[in-house]
Amino acid sequence: MKILKKEVEKYLQSIYGSSLTIKKIGNFPLEEDEIKGFGYGEPLVIEFEVEGEERKVVLSTMRGDSFGHDFRSDRAQVLLLAHETFNNLSRHVKCVDVGAVTKEGKLISLGESEEFFIITPFVEGKGYFLDLERLKDSGLTTLDRERALALSDYLVEIHSRKKDSPELYKRRLRDLVGHGEGIMGLIDNYPSDWDFLPSIYFENLEKKCVEWRHRLKEKHHRLSQVHGDFHPWNILFYRDRDFWVLDRSRGEWGEPADDLTALSINYLFFSWQAYKRVRDPFYTLFLLFWENYLEKTGDVEILEAAPPFYAWRGLVIGSPIWYPNLEADTRRLIFNFIQNVLEGERFKPEEVASYIE
Length: 357
Hints:
Layout: E1 3-4, H1 5-16, E2 20-25, E3 30-31, E4 34-35, E5 44-50, E6 53-59, H2 72-85, E7 99-101, E8 107-109, E9 126-127, H3 128-135, H4 142-159, H5 166-178, H6 183-188, H7 199-216, E10 224-225, E11 235-239, E12 242-245, E13 253-254, H8 256-275, H9 282-297, H10 302-317, H11 328-341
Antiparallel strand pairs: 1-4, 2-5, 3-4, 5-6, 7-8, 9-11, 10-13, 11-12
C-alpha cells in the first residue's frame, strides 16, 4: 500500500480545518515524496504543525488474519466500532477520525458517516419462488425441469473454483454455527417463551451442530466459490433458463453445501406446505437438482457436509419471526426434518421423504 505525503496533508487538513505542514512520518524514509512499506497492522506516527502548534497522531490499519478479520468488511467493522466507542470511555485515548485508503493512495474520512449503502442496477425478472407457488396448483412443465437444471448447472460452474485456505474454511463453519445470522443467532431470536418447542430442543440442536462443525472443519479442500444465500427470492428468471442472482452473502468462499441446501430445502418447504409431505412435482425437481449436481461434479462428499446446512436453513423457514403464519403441522415437519437430518452421517436425497417422520 502506497500513500503520498501530499495526500496525508490533504486528509489532515480536512480534519483540522487549517493548512498544515508534515514534519515527519514514522521511521519510513521518504522517497520521491512517497511513503513505502506501509502495510496492514503497521502504524505510522505522523508529526505535523498546524497554526503554529506541534501535533502528533498515529495512523493505524488492521492486518487480515484468521481470527474473524479475513475480509475487509470485518476490519472495517472493528475500526468503525473503535471510532464509536473510544471517546466514550474515561482515560481512553481518543479517536480523531476513521477513514479508508483508496487504491490510488488517497485517504478519505468516514468519521461523519451514520449508515452505509450500496447501489446496484435494476434488472427485470420474476422471482423463482413464483414458479414454486404456481407448482402447488399445476403440473410440472418442461421449463420447470430446465430451470431446475439451469440452477444446478450454475452451482456446478461456480463451485468449480477452489481456494486453498484451511483457516477460511474453518471460519465459514464457525460462522455457520455461531454467527448472528447462523444457527445460534437464529435460535436466539426464537421466542424464549415459545410453547411450540421446549428450550431443551434448541439446546440439544446447538450441541449437535457443534459436533458437526468439528466433524467437518478439516475438510478445507472443499473451500469453493459460493453465492452464500442461494434461495428462490434471490433468483430472478428473465427468459426461459436465463436468470440473475441477487444479494450474495457472507463472503466469496465457502462450503458448496451451503448453496445446495439453501435452494433445495425450498422444494421441500413448498411441498410440505401444500401436501404435508414430499411429493411431486416438488420431489421430481428436488432429485433432478441434486442428481444433476452430483453427476457433473462427482462431489459425493457434499452429502457428508449437507446436514448442518440443512439444519440452518430449516431454522430459517421454521422461524415464527420469518414465517409467523405457517401452519403448525408444516412447522412440525420442518423441525422433524432438522432433527432427523442431523442424526445420520450423510444426507440421502433419495430418502428425503423419510426425514420428516
